Amino acid sequence: MSKDRMIEIRRQNCNPMTMKVTYYKKPVFIHQGYMQWLWDVDGRRYLDLFAGVATVSVGHCHPKVTAAAEQQLKKLWHTTNIYVYPTLHEYCEKLASHFPDPLKVIYLTNSGSEANDLAILMARLHTGNYDIISLRGSYHGGSPQTIGLTSNAAYKYPVASGFGCTNTMCPDVFRGPWGGSHCRDSPVQTIRECTCAQGHCMANQQYIAQLKETFATSVPNKIAAFFGEPIQGVGGAVQYPKNYLKEAYKLVREQGGICVADEVQTGFGRTGSHFWGFQGHDVIPDMVTMAKGIGNGFPMGAVVTTPEIAASFSKGLHFNTFGGNPLACAVASSVLDTIREDDTQQNSLRVGTYLITELAKLRDKYEIIGDVRGKGLQIGVEMVRDKVQLYSQKKIACKKMYCDAQTDQSRAVFAALYMQWVRKERKQGAYFPFYSLYKQKKLMLFTHSKEHRWVGISCSGKIVYSCNAWFSVPSFQSSYRFFHTVFLTCKTASSKSTCIS
Ligand SMILES: Cc1ncc(COP(=O)(O)O)c(C=O)c1O
Predict the structure, then answer these.
(1) How far is residue 240's CA from residue 229's CA, in Å, rounded to a whole number?
(2) How far is CA 334 from the centre of its chain?
């Protein structure tokens, strides 16, 4: 099918939103993928820095996962979980083994929004309370219920939705009113000064005071739940002060609520130091929701909770036709095995730490890079007009900066960034650790293999950013930052090679 025809169909027959969210001046016509690579219909190869919105956790068409899917396809495509079949039980046991007690009961869904919807319902039934608190800037899904948890004007509609959801201040130590140079659990801290004594985070206390204010003013005495991403994803890899979640969980439980960690982006080893993002905060949630990386692109999600909460929910009947379908379970089971065998968590830690550290050097050099943050391969680079005006951006300035950033400035910065890595690695003769990212966030396969080194060197000077690297700029909404992703186009002779079949 020709490209023109595809665009015509996209205009006429596809969800019109898809025309809106195409970030590229020239659309990318993706045709095939293999591990960290994507090929377009012309055979041009791309290093995938976006991983299908942080979803392809172990690599496009990973041979092992593909084989597992093929095997299951020949055996049994579908039956529902009212029947007993091995893949469902093998998978539930395997997934449960990745959680501390008492998180041992698993509900399988088909997406992250569906998982969060289910978590909302379970929290309300278990606690007998209705109100739910989430953080501003968060993204928890686009369904009528989760849209209330999601705190980002771009995803809101002027219709009644998300009843009982209240958004509280996000403890953003870079852009929020408080923050310093020791707050984050990241290899890189903010550029803000900090006078806090060791172990005493003033910013944390201020943000916790804001949460208390929300309890005092915006919700009833008893609440159902608090939802939080361990690191905000769509909101911009925003990290909270180190003890924020710990103290917030305590307060939420005092108000009768349960604590839900949305691991849709942070789960499955992306943050490097731990398998789950919540472990980096030294907390144990009452419920964990997940999707994206769980199936390496196979549509899947899950809620993991305690037997006690599950018991409250089992008073009614809950049925999900596709949740835990044999094919999904076979794929997800193989993904878990692959994460272990390919050691992608360790890879996220090693490569992510390197990237964050190198990016921070560029932040120190370029005025336009305001912040570099994150953990493992959940990395955010926040673009600013300049480091002084950072906290007084006007709407119009944001808009201009947003436009600038989409064109020359960001390209220059990111080209510089890329070239510096290349040069550094050349000089040292070390491996160039550029690989499929897990949404910088990106694929967790951004590794140090020989092939990767070849990739880096062969790309040097010939890399064209067909879009921006994954970065953020303050956007038209005050608390929301747009994020853009990149397909790095490797315009080398070899990159024109035909797809791996
Ligand atoms: C943290 C988080 N939660 C929930 C969701 C919703 O997941 P889905 O798009 O699978 O419904 C997303 C999607 O981006 C997400 O990033």
Answers:
(1) 10
(2) 21
One-letter amino acid for residue 101 of the chain: D
140 lines ligand 1 (CB under 6 A): yes
Q: How far apart are CA 282 and CA 449, in angstroms?
A: 33
Q: What is the pTM of this model?
A: 0.84
CB of 141 closer than 6 angstroms to any ligand 1 atom? yes
Asked if residue 264 has its Cβ within 6 Å of ligand 1, the reply is yes
Note the pLDDT tens digit of each residue in 134-183: 999 999 999 999 999 999 888 899 998 889 999 999 999 998 999 999 99
Q: What is the C-alpha to C-alpha distance for residues 122 and 320, in angstroms, rounded to an integer?
A: 15
Q: 29 exposed, middle or buried (CB, 10 Å; 0-12, 13-18, 19+)?
A: middle
Contact 171, 207 (CB under 8 A): yes
| pLDDT surpasses 60 at 264 | yes
> Which residues 6+ apart lie within 8 Å of 491 measured at CB?
44, 462, 463, 464
pLDDT at 411 over 80: no
CA–CA distance, 377 with 442 (Å, rounded to integer): 7
Q: Which residue has the tokens 């969980």?
A: 249
Domains of the chain from N-terminus onward: 3-50+343-496 (3.90.1150.10)
> Is the CB of 234 within 6 Å of ligand 1?
yes
CB proximity list for 228: less than 8 A, separation 6 or greater:
134, 135, 138, 245, 248, 259, 260, 261, 262
Name the residue of 21, 113, 149, 276 to mutate for ligand 1: max ligand atoms within 8 A of Cβ.
113
Say which DSSP state 229 is in.
Answer: -
| C-alpha to C-alpha distance for 72 and 77, rounded to whole angstroms | 7
Residue 27 pLDDT class (50, 70, 90 cuts): confident
3-state secondary structure 77-102: CCCCCCCCCHHHHHHHHHHHCCCCCC
Tokens of 441: 């966030």
**Residue 216 neighbours by CB under 8 Å, 6+ apart:** none
Helix 63-75 and helix 326-341, axial crossing angle in degrees, nearest 10: 160
* CA 291 – ligand 1 centroid, Å: 7
In eight-state DSSP terms, residue 244 is H
Alpha carbon 498 to chain centroid distance? Answer: 31
Cα 113 to ligand 1 centroid, rounded to whole Å: 6
Could you tell me if the CB of 452 is within 6 A of ligand 1? no
140 CA distance to ligand 1 middle (Å): 5
